C-alpha cells in the first residue's frame, strides 16, 4: 500500500490547493526528546509503519539514530480528513473524533475500499449516494476546528493499530439495517464503530 521512498533527504514541497508547505521526509535523525509517536504526528506517518520499515519490535529509539520514514499523508488529504471529522463528529468526545479519522484510514488500508484518503471520503455507493453524509450535504466544505486537526494527526500516527473499524454510525440518526448487522468494535459517544 505505502510506497517506501529510499533517498535520505528532507525536501519541502508546496502542496497544491492548500497554500501550506509540508515536509516530505524520507529519513529522520532522532533527537534526545523524540518518541516514535511524536515523530509520527509531526511527519504524518504511522508509528506501526515506521517500526516495520526500521525493523523495530518495540518503541525504543536513540538520539543520533537515523530512521527511515514511510511516505507521509499529504497536507491536502489531512485537511480533507479533518473537515470530514469536524462535520461527522461535532459534539462527540475527542476519542470519537480520532476513531472517525481512523475509520477512513482503515478503509484506505483495506482492499475493499479505494487506496487514498480523498477517494475513500468521496466514494459513492452504486446508487450514487456518498459514503459520508457531510460530503452529500456540503458540510465537508466548512473549515475544521483545531481539535479535528489534532485528531487527524493522532489517527495517522495510530494508523494500523486498533480494532480495524471500517464503519461508524449514530443509531439515533440512521434507519439503515445493513449497518446494524456489522460486528461492533466499540461505542464512543453517540457513534457505534463496526467492522
From TrEMBL:
Keywords: Signal
PROSITE patterns named in the record: LYSM
SMART domains: LysM
Domain called LysM: residue spans: 26-69
Coiled coil segments of this chain: none
One Pfam family hit: Hydrolase_2
Signal sequence, start to end: 1-24
UniProt name for this protein: LysM domain-containing protein
Organism annotation: Sutcliffiella rhizosphaerae
Organism classification: Bacteria, Bacillati, Bacillota, Bacilli, Bacillales
Amino acid at each position: 500500500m505505502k510506497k517506501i521512498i529510499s533517498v535520505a533527504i528532507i525536501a519541502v514541497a508546496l502542496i497544491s490547493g492548500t497554500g501550506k508547505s509540508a515536509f516530505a521526509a524520507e529519513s529522520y535523525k532522532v533527537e534526545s526528546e523524540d518518541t516514535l509517536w511524536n515523530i509520527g504526528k509531526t511527519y504524518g506517518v504511522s508509528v506501526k509503519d515506521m517500526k516495520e520499515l526500521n525493523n523495530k519490535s518495540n518503541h525504543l529509539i536513540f538520539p543520533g539514530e537515523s530512521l527511515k520514514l514511510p511516505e507521509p499523508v499529504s497536507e491536502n488529504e489531512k485537511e480533507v480528513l479533518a473537515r470530514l471529522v469536524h462535520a461527522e463528529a461535532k459534539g462527540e468526545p475527542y476519542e470519537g473524533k480520532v476513531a472517525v479519522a481512523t475509520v477512513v484510514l482503515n478503509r484506505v488500508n483495506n482492499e475493499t475500499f479505494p487506496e487514498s484518503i480523498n477517494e475513500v471520503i468521496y466514494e459513492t455507493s452504486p446508487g450514487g449516494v456518498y459514503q459520508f453524509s457531510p460530503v452529500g450535504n456540503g458540510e465537508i466544505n466548512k473549515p475544521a476546528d483545531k481539535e479535528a486537526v489534532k485528531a487527524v494527526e493522532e489517527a495517522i500516527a495510530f494508523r494500523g493499530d486498533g480494532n480495524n473499524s471500517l464503519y461508524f454510525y449514530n443509531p439515533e440518526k440512521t434507519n439503515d439495517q445493513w449497518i446494524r448487522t456489522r460486528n461492533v468494535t466499540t461505542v464512543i459517544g453517540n457513534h457505534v464503530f463496526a467492522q
